[in-house]
Specification:
The chain contains 10 helices and 12 strands. By secondary structure, the chain is α+β, with helices and mostly antiparallel strands.
């Protein structure tokens, strides 16, 4: 991947403008159920208020696209650069992340005015048919906003889970607990050898997905579906959260310090597990994939099951020809869906839950960050985090691909994160 370019865009100008309009419209639709109070409160330092997500994604277009490339552009409010910058050191000082919830003003309606101001300016710039540099920045901004659409939903779920009345973000009635029996766990074998990993350079990709390179892998087997809630209940009942021998040292310290006894949001009521969802407090579906578990929990479960987590190389090699089809945000389900009992081979590779891998988030061979502020996008986080693959039930469709590398610290649980088992052949 050329360090002077972000990626090789394949979108025609009209298609790029349509993508921009669709992404911006989706964010505002996600914000419709929220009151100003909903959108302002911050539930923990790792989460951000919905209002901040809506404003930060707008600031990204303002700072990265409009200010450098539209000479007549007038910023909506100069103070917003401080309020809504995230971590871009090269672009100046910013509100500390743990205190984003203190920004009670501007109100939510003012943020929507800010979005309209920036949208109009980006529209003018796109209709002027800008060069590749600007087009690539706009496309990057769209994918950046799609990341924040997912974060907006996971952060709202965490916030609503702290509310004693357990409000629903969306009407709970359209989604019922499934009653089908879980599909038996089986494994598909894959040959070892030298495989090419990473984005092939055609169309959009984040810089961390390249350069494409060769990797030697040993023969392995991958579970045909994700680990289910029923299987996680067996892990709990067998003392999984009480057996230190199953856990990495740092993970066991978290179990003790934070009193982990099950996935985040799970509660045992009258002998039945319930969990907070985006559709309110609902019974846990035993046949659906387990979600909201940390890397430490996923690794402990795999050890308990006599298996392991796949590497990200194994995952990509196994799924690159399957196509990114699955239970994404557009289905409206907003929670993981059980695997089909009528399908053989790998299922649920895309959508439902992000799948923890055992691979640390580190640079590929020959990786170099692009110059300037956008070079801070991924490269600065390549330490102390693990890779997740595949997307989730709140990932926007069209945003995911086999080479996509999500990453979080190993203790994080508030994302829709689950696991698929692997074993050596």
């Amino acid at each position: 991947m050329n360090p002077a370019r972000l990626f090789q865009s394949s979108l025609a100008p009209d298609d790029l403008e349509l993508l921009f309009q669709q992404v911006r419209g989706t964010s505002e639709k996600l914000g419709e159920p929220l009151s100003d109070a909903d959108a302002t409160v911050q539930s923990m330092p790792d989460a951000s208020p919905s209002k901040w997500h809506l404003a930060h994604t707008t600031w990204f277009f303002e700072a990265m696209v409009l200010s450098p490339h539209l000479p007549e552009y007038e910023p909506f409010d100069e103070r917003f650069s401080f309020l809504f910058n995230s971590y871009y050191e090269t672009l100046g000082a910013r509100q500390p992340r743990p205190r984003r919830g203190m920004v009670t003003r501007p109100a939510l309606d003012e943020i929507y005015k800010y979005r309209k101001h920036v949208d109009a300016a980006v529209g003018r710039l796109l209709r002027s048919r800008p060069g590749p540099e600007v087009s690539e920045l706009v496309e990057l901004g769209c994918h950046h906003e799609q990341q924040h659409q997912e974060l907006l939903l996971t952060d709202i779920l965490h916030l609503f889970a702290q509310n004693p009345i357990r409000p629903a973000y969306r009407d709970p009635s359209p989604v019922a607990v499934e009653t089908q029996a879980p599909t038996p766990l089986s494994f598909t074998a894959f040959d070892g050898g030298i495989v090419e990993i990473g984005h092939d350079g055609a169309g959009f990709a984040f810089d961390s997905e390249g350069p494409r390179h060769r990797v030697l892998i040993e023969p392995f087997r991958l579970a045909d579906r994700l680990v289910t809630n029923a299987e996680w209940m067996e892990f709990i009942e067998d003392g999984g959260y009480r057996s230190s021998l199953l856990w990495l040292s740092e993970g066991w310290a978290r179990v003790l310090a934070e009193d982990w006894s099950g996935p985040l949001y799970w509660e045992l009521r009258d002998g039945q597990y319930w969990a907070m969802t985006l559709r309110g407090f609902q019974p846990v579906d035993p046949t659906a994939p387990v979600a909201h578990v940390s890397y430490f929990e996923a690794d402990a479960f795999a050890t308990w099951a006599g298996k392991r987590l796949p590497t990200e190389t194994e995952w990509e090699a196994a799924t690159r020809n399957l196509g990114p089809v699955g239970n994404f945000l557009d289905t409206g389900r907003l929670r993981p869906k059980p695997a089909s009992s009528r399908t053989t081979g790998l299922q649920q590779t895309f959508g439902d839950v992000w799948e923890w891998t055992r691979s640390p988030f580190s640079p590929y061979p020959r990786f170099r960050a692009v110059e300037g502020a956008v070079g801070e996008y991924n490269g600065k986080f390549m330490s102390g985090q693990f890779v997740l693959r595949g997307g989730s039930c709140v990932t926007p469709p069209g945003h995911i691909r086999a080479s996509y590398r999500n990453f979080f610290p190993p203790h994080t649980r508030w994302q829709f994160s689950g696991l698929r088992l692997a074993e050596d052949a």
